[in-house]
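Quick illustration, no need to memorize.
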Amino acid sequence: MILLSDNEVIQEIKSYSNPNWIWIEIWEMSQYEVRVVVSVNEEEACHLGQNKVIYIYSAQTKSNCDEIGELKAYGRKITRLIRKHFPYSEVHSRLYYK
């Protein structure tokens, strides 16, 4: 399930003061839910409270295997979009899940 539209994701990243480093990852929230998360930071090393975390897509792990495939596909799509809008930022994608 999409939590934020593409435009909302871009606006959230733009609202961060200096989005030099951007990571797109899959986080396991519980044994039943995984999310695609965008983390934005000014520098490579993350310091507590200085980065921005944006939850953009959620999928249930137990209900349907297709949801995980859709989650990964959405992650790849949003990675391309972020790279297009932030060409001078370091954008890293870690879309791995079991």
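Strands lie at 21-28, 33-41, 52-60, 90-94.
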